[in-house]
Design goal:
alpha+beta; Peptidoglycan synthesis regulatory factor (PBP3), Domain 2; 2 domains; 7-stranded mixed beta sheet; 5-stranded antiparallel beta sheet; 9 helices; 18 strands; globular
């Protein structure tokens, strides 16, 4: 018999404010996604090709983080600054202000890239990792393809103007989500408000993070600004409220002020108008399911993946979850055996599902007890 039980979950994100229509965002292109589910909450010409400018530095950082995680690079490793890298600081670009033959730690270069948006630091790190910026760009493109950035090509490590350096806000959102999910210990660099570099041949120079939303104390903890004359101003940003996180990417803002205000407007709109449910945490949320002829009356089950669902708040009354299985589950039951299916519906539409697996082994009762139980069921219908 197929059994279906409606599950009631605590909503982990609470209603705040009144629902509104889509916001009027003053940008050429923009997107807003929920971090946990990847659900697109808002988009404005999301496939429009853009010059990613300094948002390129998100991928530059990701390449370094990969190598750090693999033990092929260390934060204390020193990289020697080339003339090419130094010249970037002499050309009017945003810079960390490094000098030729400086030996700079990977950690300081990362801070120079992430916080100060230093193009010189990008070139130095790229050359130190891959031998040349061109080789490093190949690594960036391989990673972009790996994580599903299908409309992106990187031509350099910094994002300075190049017709072969292109992307769109949808791909930048994919990259931003990947960054936060896979490098939590390094993501902290993106919320640092200031970086001071004790430069050669001059007094230490302190630079503020160019993401002004970090200073508003509203829960924004990243990610990266960008600007090119041909593109205007851009920003990939993320806000965290309690357990919830949203990511927005916008490009083509006409001013720095609009870049910040419109991004925050979009993030706040998303928090007001949508809700995310935590349905199941991987190997932590436990479901109790009745057994048949088992030495235990129930078996514990869990999902092997986190299951979150994001919906519009107006659909709140239509949301429900079901645990579906053929049951009771007949023993013997092996640990890791699929025993049920967790289903999430919006009205009658199935929007997400995940298998539930046994957390434990349940042996079958002995023959005599099995016979008595079966007879009891035949007479009384009691399992």
């Amino acid at each position: 018999m197929i059994k279906k039980f409606k599950l009631i979950f605590v909503i982990i994100f609470f209603w705040s404010g009144t629902a509104y229509s889509n916001p009027d965002i003053k940008a050429r292109t923009a997107i807003l996604i929920d971090y946990h589910t990847g659900t697109v909450l808002y988009d404005l010409q999301p496939d429009l090709s853009i010059s990613p400018a300094s948002m390129t530095k998100i991928m530059t950082s990701i390449i370094a983080f990969d190598l750090l995680n693999e033990g092929k690079l260390d934060l204390d490793d020193k990289i020697v600054v080339s003339e090419k890298a130094w010249r970037m600081s002499q050309s009017g670009y945003s810079s960390m202000f490094i000098m030729i033959n400086d030996k700079i730690s990977v950690e300081n270069l990362l801070k120079g890239i992430i916080i100060a948006s230093g193009n010189d630091a990008c070139v130095a790190l790229a050359e130190g990792i891959a031998g040349s910026e061109e080789n490093f760009a190949d690594m960036m493109n391989e990673k972009a393809q790996e994580i599903g950035m299908t409309e992106t090509n990187f031509a350099n490590a910094s994002g300075i103007n190049n017709p072969d350096n292109y992307s769109n806000v949808k791909d930048i959102a994919i990259m931003s989500r990947y960054l936060i999910k896979n490098y939590p210990s390094y993501y902290k660099y993106f919320e640092e408000a200031e970086f001071t570099w004790d430069r050669t041949g001059g007094n230490p120079i302190s630079q503020n993070n160019r993401n002004s939303l970090l200073f508003k104390k509203v829960g924004v903890d990243g990610i990266k600004t960008g600007h090119l004359a041909v593109e205007g101003y851009s920003l990939a940003s993320s806000i965290k409220k309690e357990k919830r996180r949203l990511i927005s990417v916008g490009s083509g803002f006409k001013t720095i002020a609009l870049r910040s205000s419109q991004s925050l407007k979009l993030l706040n709109w998303g928090l007001r108008n949508s809700i995310t449910y935590e349905i199941s945490q991987k190997e932590k949320t436990v479901f109790e399911i009745k057994t048949w002829l088992g030495k235990k009356k129930t078996v514990q089950g869990t999902t092997k993946e986190d299951l979150y669902v994001t919906i519009d708040k107006k659909d709140f009354k239509n949301f429900n979850t079901m645990l579906e299985y053929s049951g009771p589950i007949k023993a013997p039951i092996e640990k890791g055996q699929e025993i049920a299916l967790l289903k999430v519906y919006n009205k009658e539409t199935l929007i997400k599902s995940a298998p539930v697996y046994a957390l434990e082994k349940v042996s079958k009762v002995n023959f005599l007890l099995s016979l008595l139980t079966s007879l009891n069921y035949m007479i009384w219908g009691d399992v």
